[in-house]
Amino acid sequence: MGQSKKLLAGVIRNDRQMADARTIRYYDSSPHERAAQDQRPVEAQPPIGELRLDPLVNEWVAMAAHRQSRIFLPPKELCPLCPTTGDLLTEIPESDYEVVVFDNRSPSLRAPIGDWALPDQVGPDTDTGTAAGKCEVICFTAEHGNSFKDLSEQRVRVLLEAWIDRTEELSKESYIQHIAPFENRGEEIGVTISHPHGQIYAYSYLPPRVEKMLAAATTYKKQTNKILFDEVVAREIKDKVRIVAQNDRWIAFVPFAARYPFEIHVAPRNPVADLTGLTEQDRAAYAPIALEVMKRLDGVFGVEMAYIAAWHQAPVRVGRDVLRLHWQITSVRRAPGKLKYLAGSESAMGAFIMDVQPEQSAAQLREVIL
Amino acid sequence: MGQSKKLLAGVIRNDRQMADARTIRYYDSSPHERAAQDQRPVEAQPPIGELRLDPLVNEWVAMAAHRQSRIFLPPKELCPLCPTTGDLLTEIPESDYEVVVFDNRSPSLRAPIGDWALPDQVGPDTDTGTAAGKCEVICFTAEHGNSFKDLSEQRVRVLLEAWIDRTEELSKESYIQHIAPFENRGEEIGVTISHPHGQIYAYSYLPPRVEKMLAAATTYKKQTNKILFDEVVAREIKDKVRIVAQNDRWIAFVPFAARYPFEIHVAPRNPVADLTGLTEQDRAAYAPIALEVMKRLDGVFGVEMAYIAAWHQAPVRVGRDVLRLHWQITSVRRAPGKLKYLAGSESAMGAFIMDVQPEQSAAQLREVIL
Question: pTM value?
Fold first, then answer.
């Protein structure tokens, strides 16, 4: 029935089919039998959505109207990301797990059927596309009440291997252009299920922000013959004042022109295009800095911070020589009772106004006693 | 002491100085003496902020750390935007007013001293700039509890003349590149003062979204010799299904690739670059459609909708032949108890996912009984 695959650091992946034919992948730090069957009745899969061009800025918008009815803050005893126990039949048929990745039940983007191509972008005359891509859910732990920062180093290593494995596999799909593993945390930013988990979006187009990063890095390369992100990291190492944490393989800093009250970029010292390029040493050294950064973030105000933590990778087919892997963590929390909102200037004009000096937030993060 | 200026539709502007030397401008539909003195003690003005380049996307971020301590949801009896009455000394010295515009007390952008130029954008080696520009507050009414939609048609006409006047005057400043009047409404999106008011941001750089609109319109003109926004409006008129309201001078529609659950664009049928280009007939016909649109928006769920309503204008010095004036209203409210949040895909990747079909939200808006 299932497939098994050996990854680095002794991590083993076992695949199973869910009742509705979606795939679930178990990533374990030691051999486990993962044979439990999904006992739930089969539900119809939602249809694939549309890609519509916003001609005013020449950007694709994915229309996924079926997502309006998705599950919203279920109580713990009905959590669909907990293991299956007794009468509670969840997304994960096993009674326990380490890390699992499964296809999203309400995906914004889906695998296309047959040949697929993105329409040309020519203003309001552009054809509508189908919202091709893949959306996966990645659960970090079976423990409902925990957070990323509560994971063991070993668990973070398994998680990293899962992210790497998904990046490698999704990169092989001909319609995939970009892969973004991210975690949203906190009801303040709309998280609908509080179980520790992330998502993996694999886009069939370059996300607008990635497209802009590619343009900036390409221009910089032409002008200076240097790699933009490497120079950014070099400046942070030289300036010192915005560094939050570091070890011999990774560095974490508040960027010079941070957009959010708390924003941390985490980058490997030896630059790579995407997660698959990380060496064994890089991989082993990620968990300590990732956990330190997340603990510092929650320590600033002594509250669980709402955040978005997203891996920025080079796209699958372009820009692999100018874009670099890094992990961007942004939080809208500017004080215990206050959030930063994106209003007229940020949202309508795209012009960010920052109320917190990056050097100040970096100092606050450094001063947290762990 | 003050200056007086006559605008169209009998609107009169009277200028006064506030105690700390900021300017307040009264816009009235009939002659009023506006001689009241600001009785408050003089407070030091905050220093000008920094412009820092985010090299990864080549965008300016304005650093305004002094804004951290700005006033936060004051109770009605301490509202700084109400008229001055008795012991309550507010931003408006008069005991009543129609529309006023005054310099923001905690501006993100300020007038520069002496010569000023934007640094070149060359990655992490870019110099830091000063956050040049102007931030003004515009109050729509002295009535604290009201909203834009409760204004009279005459008041909206005064408001429109004030926006036009500010655009005209701010355009003359050599360091101003773009002018954006906008209104943020609703605590859900971080509005810190509930009195009906908007803001006018005059930027010394092209806001990133405007820069992107300019690039899209310029490319489209080269490819087709047509004006992008005019073709967008033509498509909406042809498709009919997303039109929300119209009169003989204006049209309001949900855009084909809307990004927000409720999004309405309002455009004059005879295109102009910015507010100053509107004819007398356009100006007279704006209030009815503006009020209708806002009433429809609040009518959909029978709740006051959080929204951002922003005027998109052509920049002051570039792109005036390819960009068009229009008013974009966006709401994150997707259901009575639910908001749309910008999380991993939207915020980190810039890739919008829409849960509501634009044709459906347009129908909901049309079906509201006014």
Answer: 0.96
